[in-house]
Amino acid sequence: MSRLGNLGARLYRGEVGYDFIRNRKIWYGVSILITITAIIGVAVGGLRLGIEFEGGAVFTTDTKAKISTVQATDVATEASGHQAIVQELGNGGLRIQITEVGTAKANEIKETLSDELGIPAEQINADLVGPSWGEQIANKAWTGLVVFMILVVIYLAIAFEWRMAVAALIALIHDITITVGVYALVGFEVTPGTVIGLLTILGYSLYDTVVVFDSLKEGQKDITKQTRFTYSEVANRSINSTLVRSINTTVVALLPVAGLLFIGGGVLGAGMLNDISLSLFVGLAAGAYSSIFIATPLVADLKERDPQMKALKKRVLAKRAAAAARGESPEDDGPAYQQDEDVETAGAVVGQRQQPRGHGRTPGKR
To answer: CB within 10 Å: which end of the chain, N or C, has fewer?
Structure first.
């Protein structure tokens, strides 16, 4: 078995682990700081909306121009009176988009580009985009997002419990906010491809969260019948038992997306790949983080306020204090723990079952 596989098995059995729940305030602070930075980025810098949302004209050429993209940007900006965005296509052609351009102005710009680029006007394709089309896309995207959130909350409340539904919703909002903030900070253009990417990451983010919640749901069965673990400790064991699975899933998903972003978008210059892959890359990473460091700790915080969980915590701490006074460890097979039926139940619920001493008998013999 590989080292990672061995580590995953030990994490699953509870032999090793990291206390995510105890350090939850650190993760909350990190998330709040990142979220505030993202909100400030959107508020100050704003989002650079694509032509699909603002309307305008897109000019594309199939042949290589005689001037560079920088020169083409200057020419198109001067001809239109608006800032032009020029991208070099894989075949050597150019894609020039200019906002707030009508039909008459688009024909003038096309003639100017033909002269400056050294390309016949009939070989330059001009497409006009109305802002109403982008507005319809944005409205449908918001509608889809709201419906998705509502359905997620209802499903999780039924399949698990309302606390998990609330935590998952907060984690999703956290992931979307960070992704949108990154777009504002790096200045990437927001296009329909970006909207598709944002809607896609919601499913990936929710997948990791549900995996941990499912493990937690199994671990908390009959939790009040034992006095070995508090709810927060059970939640922490659930995170550790699914940690390697979450890391593997995230890395496998990020690798092809990174290829799209850095090779397809960065090297080959495919604009649409940039739009989709950046939102997927940031969203996948944020989703993996929130499922481990935000969602489950939030569930533990909410659950620990329940009177039954408070009473359980008092019993667990009282038993540990009594064991410490006797010089014993709650993990030992001492007499006090051999005779406690609650501890036997706990072993079946959240960890390996503690076996009673054999009193000198040989297994299988009477």
So the answer is: C
- The DSSP symbol for 265 reads I
Q: How far is the C-alpha of 58 from the C-alpha of 86, rounded, in Å? A: 10
User: pTM for this structure?
Assistant: 0.74
* Phi and psi, residue 87, nearest 5°: -125, 140
Per the listing, tokens 């359980």 go with: 312
CA 346/CA 354 separation, integer angstroms = 9
The answer, yes or no, to whether residue 346 has pLDDT greater than 70, is: no
Per DSSP, 293 falls in state I
Could you give the CA distance from residue 46 to residue 40 in angstroms, rounded to a whole number? 9
CA distances from 119 to 74, 93, 96, 108, 125 (A): 17, 10, 14, 15, 11
Pairing, β 84-88 against β 124-129: unpaired
- Residue-wise pLDDT for 62-102, tens only, equals 777 777 778 888 888 888 877 787 877 766 678 888 877 77
Q: Are 273 and 290 in contact (CB under 8 A)?
A: no
State phi, psi for 358 to the nearest 5 degrees: -85, -5
Rounded Cα distance between 315 and 337, Å, is 14
Q: For Cα atoms 107, 111, 115, give the angle at the middle one, nearest 5 degrees.
A: 165
Question: Which residues, 6+ apart, have CB-to-CB distance to 60 below 8 Å?
Answer: 89, 93, 94, 95, 96, 124, 125, 127
Q: How far is residue 221's CA from residue 344's CA, in Å, rounded to a whole number? A: 14
Higher pLDDT, 16 or 185: 185
Alpha helix (H) ranges present in 67-159?
Answer: 69-80, 103-117, 131-159
Kindly report, residue by residue over 249-288, the tens digit of the pLDDT.
Answer: 888 888 888 887 777 655 555 556 677 888 888 888 898 8
Select from 51, 49, 135 the least CA-distant residue to 96: 51
Six token digits for residue 26: 């650190």
The β-bridge partners of 128 are 57
Instruction: Compute the Cα dihedral for 149, 173, 27, 243 and give only its sign.
Output: positive
Name the nearest CA neighbour of 11 among 203, 281, 241. 241
Q: Which helix (H) or strand (E) holds 344?
A: helix 341-350
d(CA 141, CA 166): 22
Place 33 in a pLDDT band, splitting at 50, 70 and 90: very high
